[in-house]
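sanity check this:
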Amino acid sequence: MKKTFILVLLTLISTSGIAAVIKGRDSDNACTLYKIMPSDAKGKVALSEGEVVIYFKEAYGLSFTEMEVNFDNREVLIQPTINIVMGFNLPLIQTKAAIPSDHVDFNFLINQLNRKILLFEKICITQDNKIAYAKMFEQTPAPESKLK
């Protein structure tokens, strides 16, 4: 029984798609861009110039956790998090980031806290730890059925 469980667990882990967390620069928005990039069949990730891999394992998305409301500064502090298979999530950055109350997507961003169904593919954080933007994974259209 133990051998079967271990074999199933190893199969599950080894067949899951490996993705990396990439750190780059978004010069248009003056922020550091963190994004999830899947690896190819050989386990390699295609990097653009100036990008570095900060985490390479079974990451499947980015999310926000640990909300703190700062009423004096009119902002919400959140912990950007790397979501990893089997719940071994890690902080994306060492400090919390802020979402100011005047941010154009304030309501949308704070409503994503602690969600695990809809995850971010990209999060861009300014030098003063403010969220410039966060982008969900794009939905790919379902293939057309060949049955008529």
